[in-house]
Amino acid sequence: MKYLPRCLAIILFLFTLSAEARAGLKVVTTLPDLAWAAREIGGDGVSVVSLLRGTENPHFADAVPDFIAKAASADVLCAVGLELEVGWLPKVLSRSGNAKVQTGGAGFCETGPAVEVIDKPAGAIDRSMGDVHPYGNPHFWISPLALAEGARAIRDALVRVDGAHRALYEANYRKLKTKLDSIHRKNLEKLKPYAGQPIFMEYHQEFAYFFSAYGLRSAGSLEEKPGVPPSAGRIAGAANSAKGEVKLLLASETNPESTLKKFSEISGIPFVILPVMSHVKGEPRDYEALQNRIVEAVLGKLK
Predict the structure, then answer these.
(1) Residue 6 falls within a domain, yes or no?
(2) CB-count burial class (<10 Å; 0-12, 13-18, 19+) for 44
(3) DSSP 8-state symbol, 225
């Protein structure tokens, strides 16, 4: 027993060395919810930052110097992919000069290809159709089930660049999946009374995975073409068609409130403005809070 304190000291020393080694591993993600997943998988020894704050439209951002500097020092950089960040992330990567996080590099990962995507268009695509994503709807992270799928790419990227901690990353990923399954089950029960009813609309197809995860049905989008603001005629037509069936229009923080109000005035259908990402500053501060905020806001409007 007299040797126990020394043994404990050695164990603590080795643990500290391991944590310090992993603390040097820098992970950058495009979205806060990918950052949350990366922290869950990487543990306290890995530093993680998100480029976006969670209040922006992820389709549109600028390759600002701060983004480039973060990418330049990253060991791992994880994005959604599926062309969500195609307008700005390639510029960030090319200007960073960091070979590790370029497309095809060991430290680069796209989470979208690991997900069973929905809304994948069939046939030829051209710009006249609006902002159509040829690889499918990229807004998957709003579903706990889909985020669990996408997070596998984060786990795999961490293992590639830090194979010495493979067991830790794999164990932490399993814990993350369990946590996401729990979040899903809890909110699935709350939303069960509305399952299968086409009583929802969305401004943009940002809630498709949320609807799918919870067994909800969408009556369509207020946008006639993805990414193209609806005309007055489209607003009126959609509002009149929705009367009597649709009970709620879902919109994100970046959607134009004036358009939502016009739709509501014509149709008599309320709308709710929701966060579609957790926020780096303020609420919802993490993924569980994001899910709870969306579900409680939707239930509050329906009741």
Answers:
(1) no
(2) exposed
(3) B
Q: Quick check: is 4 in a domain? A: no
Pairing of strands 271-274, 76-79: unpaired
CA–CA separation, 12 vs 14, rounded Å? 5
d(CA 83, CA 67): 18
Full domain range(s) for residue 223: 186-302
pTM of the model: 0.90
Helices (DSSP H) in 121-273: which residue ranges? 144-161, 166-191, 208-213, 232-242, 257-267
Element spanning 284, H or E: none
Sequence-distant (6+) residues with CB within 8 A of 19 are: 44, 45
Is the domain of 71 the same as that of 166?
Answer: yes
Nearest to 51 by CA among 70, 38, 37: 70
pLDDT digits (tens, 9 = 90+) for 32-66: 999 999 999 999 989 999 999 999 999 999 999 99
